[in-house]
Amino acid sequence: MTRKRIIASALSLFADRGYDKTTFEEVARRLSMTKGAVYWHFPNKQALLLAIVHEVHERFDTDMLKGRDRKSITFAEAVDILAEHAAGVATDSEAACLYMILHSRIRWGETSMTELRGEIIGSAYKGGPFALLKTALENEAAAGRFRSDLSTDDTAGAMLFAWSSLIRAQIEGFIKKDLKKTVKTALQIFRDGWLPRGASAARKTGR
């Protein structure tokens, strides 16, 4: 319970002040705790941020996969899940706040974040939206429905970036249309690019 309270306090401060300007003292003060008590749960601020990312991925897997085995997920199922999740994030104030903290209130390009970026990338391979897309594409490749000259990792990364950008655009008010439909359209357009050569045209003509 204390660990979750610390994470909640940190998220609130990251939203108000940004990651760089938030200190452990402030996190502890907001909870009427000592700085040492916060350090007992998290050795440093990067460990606290990594815990937040882990929690986001775990929440995604629990709430969106709903007990389904990710290893057998199809691309069509992945698209439905990601479209549903995007709409949920954009319309939930707490989820939208967390999303914006991770995507616009942290200077990921800083040299000091290099090690943490690597750990977060490793976390993304184990759970969350990237893992879902990567597995879905690997399943398509195993079934012969993915171009052999493309990388499933790179393709999943590009799709995740597009998906993430659409969510941010919706939160910031740049997209007013149905986000769920917009996400599905975007990911389906990507699919036409990674289908084996000739398959895309055949799919469009119904052959």
Tally of individual helices? 11
Strand content: under 5%
CATH classification, class level of the largest domain: Mainly Alpha
**Total strand count, please?**
0
| Low-pLDDT residue intervals, each spanning 5 or more residues | none
CATH superfamily of the largest domain: Tetracycline Repressor, domain 2
Biggest sheet character? none
Mean pLDDT: 83
The CATH level-2 architecture of the largest domain is identified as Orthogonal Bundle
Q: Share of helix among residues? A: over 70%
> What is the chain-wise order of helices and strands?
HHHHHHHHHHH
Overall geometry comes to: elongated
Number of domains: 2
Blueprint (SSEs and pairs):
Elements: H1 2-17, H2 24-30, H3 35-41, H4 45-65, H5 75-91, H6 93-104, H7 114-126, H8 129-142, H9 152-171, H10 179-194, H11 199-205
Helix pairs in contact: 1-2, 2-3, 4-7, 5-6, 5-8, 5-9, 5-10, 8-9, 9-10
Question: Can you describe this structure in just a few lines?
Answer:
The protein is mainly α and 207 residues long.
What does this structure look like?
This protein is an all-alpha fold. The chain has 2 domains: 1-43, Homeodomain-like (Arc Repressor Mutant, subunit A), CATH 1.10.10.60; 45-205, Tetracycline Repressor, domain 2 (Orthogonal Bundle), CATH 1.10.357.10. The protein is built from 11 helices and no strands. It has helices at residues 2-17, 24-30, 35-41, 45-65, 75-91, 93-104, 114-126, 129-142, 152-171, 179-194, 199-205. Helix 9 (152-171) runs antiparallel to helix 10. The longest helix is centred in the first third of the chain and has 21 residues, at 45-65. The model has no long low-confidence stretch (mean pLDDT 83).
